[in-house]
Amino acid sequence: MDVSNAFLQGTLQDEVFMEQPPGFKDPAKPDHVCKLRKAIYGLKQAPRAWYNELSAFLKANSFTHSMADSSLFIYSHNGMEAYFLVYVDDLVITGNNTRFLNDFVARLSTRFSVKDLGTLDYFLGIEVLHTKKGLLLLQHKYIRDLLRKHKMAEAKDVRSPMATGATLSLHDNSRYTTATDFRSLVGALQYLLITRPDISFAINKLS
């Protein structure tokens, strides 16, 4: 799901003032400023205000914060499970009770301007396949793009990503001559650990 004008939804907790915008200046009080009650785009407090507004709504509907990830909210009551993931203005919800999910999305739509984008297939570089047993998460496209970016699209795959006794050297004739290039690659590989825990040892060795 996508939220329209998400950053305009948040109520500000801090005192924030702005100049009167062009076209809306009061000719009788041209030197006065406006006190903002709601967030606007470009305001550094806007993302936090939006998150707090959404978080308050979810908690009022019996969702709780995940202890592992502040962007994940969990509903668990009477055998019903639902998971609500937030990434800026993109929302993902799934669970084991279709009726509950439909009712909750309806309540969410009355509070925020929400557009339902349908069944989740791709999110933040992660492909989502729907199977009879649940959701299967893959990163095939992300891997292919990463290989092409680092000119390794023709590299051969191996069953074991790294020997456990391998020793790395600071100078090993690698083509990555700058720390920035190397850190960029390692950071990109770390994102693969979401779906590829089998390469954890090799990535941790590199980092």
Written description of the protein model:
- The chain is of the alpha+beta class and 207 residues long.
- It contains five helices and eleven strands.
- The strands form four sheets. It has a four-stranded antiparallel sheet, with helices on one face. Strands 9-10-11 form a three-stranded antiparallel sheet. A two-stranded antiparallel ribbon has the order 1-8.
- Strand 4 and strand 5 form a beta hairpin.
| Series of H and E elements | EEEHEEEEHEEEEHHH
Low-confidence stretches: none
Mean pLDDT: 87
Could you tell me the strand content as a percent range? 25-35%
Secondary-structure-derived class: alpha+beta
Radius of gyration: 23 Å
Largest sheet: 4 strands, antiparallel
Distance between the termini: 35 Å
Count the beta strands: 11
Number of helices: 5
